[in-house]
Amino acid sequence: MSAGAAASRLGIGVVGAGRVGPVLARALAGAGHAIVGITALGVDGRERAEAMLPGVPVLDVAEVVRRSELVLFAVPGSELPDLVTGLAATGAWQPGQLAIHTAPEHGYGVFAPALAAGVIPLALHPAMVFTGTSLDLTRLAEATVAVTAPAPVLPIGQALAVEMGAEPVIVAEEDRAAYAEAVSAASEFSRAIVRQNIDALRALGIERPGQIVAGIVRAAVEEELIAGEPDPEL
């Protein structure tokens, strides 16, 4: 399959109706793809699926895979290996099917049990914090997507990231664990610092401490990001 084929209309099935899956499906639908089904557990998942993907049928995992040319797995990384292995054991995979996951810690190797069936594996991780709402579609336009895939199909992953509205960044298979650690640390550390400073200002009796912290943090982050960019003249 060529990168151009990735841009054509695909039947996409989504496994997982947390904050990530429905948003990425909505973005890909906006690029012209057809969402053929989604799995959704619990009331929250079903409500989110209906809000983001109205009219898309809620199906079980096996049926989503059966109907799809591209299967998007938006589930915790800890659940992914057993899920992929279970589908392989039941013969659910189809030759030429695209299989994508969004877990930062895994590369495409997690799809090894499906390769014998002719599945095309890709790992796409959007580096952003999701709300699970349409607000995330705007955030995607400012985000990057870590793309990891075998070299012949890497352009497909890049094309799909662009169709989501984001900028693709290639991460090597052997670097996924370090990448996951870095993005996790950035998120957790940022949250901890913000929370600590808001609590400190609130203890002083200052109203709307979040507004103060937001201005400082945004400015500091922007300065560091500028400082970290390579000098184009060098």
Key terms:
single chain, 234 residues, alpha/beta
Describe the protein's architecture and organization.
It holds the Pfam family DUF2520. This is DUF2520 domain-containing protein. Helix 9 runs antiparallel to helix 10 (209-228). The chain is globular. It has helices spanning 3-6, 21-30, 42-52, 61-67, 80-89, 112-115, 135-140, 154-163, 176-203, 209-228, and strands at residues 11-15, 34-38, 70-73, 98-101, 120-126, 144-148, 167-170. The protein has 234 residues and is an alpha/beta fold. It is built from 10 helices and 7 strands. The model has no long low-confidence stretch (mean pLDDT 90). Strands 2-1-3-4-5-6-7 form a 7-stranded mixed beta sheet, with helices on both faces.
What's the helix and strand layout?
Layout: H1 3-6, E1 11-15, H2 21-30, E2 34-38, H3 42-52, H4 61-67, E3 70-73, H5 80-89, E4 98-101, H6 112-115, E5 120-126, H7 135-140, E6 144-148, H8 154-163, E7 167-170, H9 176-203, H10 209-228
Parallel strand pairs: 1-2, 1-3, 3-4, 4-5, 6-7
Antiparallel strand pairs: 5-6
Helix pairs in contact: 9-10
Which spans of ≥5 residues are poorly predicted at pLDDT below 50? none
Rounded radius of gyration (Å): 19 Å
Q: Count the strands? A: 7
Shape: globular
Strand order of the largest sheet: 2-1-3-4-5-6-7
Strand content: 5-15%
- Can you give the helix content as a percent range? 40-55%
* Sheet with most strands: 7 strands, mixed
| C-alpha end-to-end distance | 39 Å
Secondary structural class: alpha/beta
Order of helices and strands: HEHEHHEHEHEHEHEHH
Structure annotation, total helices: 10
> What is the typical, i.e. mean, pLDDT?
90
Domain DUF2520: 144-223
Protein name: DUF2520 domain-containing protein
Domain Putative oxidoreductase/dehydrogenase Rossmann-like: 5-126
InterPro entries: DUF2520, NAD(P)-bd_dom_sf, OxRdtase/DH_put_Rossmann_dom
